[in-house]
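Record 1 of the preview.
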Amino acid sequence: MTHYIYRLIDSNTGEEVEASEAFTFVDVPLIGHHLIDAALIQHYGGPAIVNQVNENKVPESTDIEVLVSISAVSELLNDDDIDRDQGYRRS
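->
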């Protein structure tokens, strides 16, 4: 049986990022998917977004390593009470 090994890689630094122990994938994530996890929210200040997904077969095994490149999500806040300079935030 094929076993998928997921590694979250920060797109900006190239370093591996740890999600919480309870975080799992049901299937290989798609580009643009938002990852909502307590450890990722603490690291990025909000949900992470999938930028790139690469699958590699592990030599001498049936396992597949999935490298998931992620970064912080930027979103525009639509509130007239917010200063224009504060209109964007990391989330």
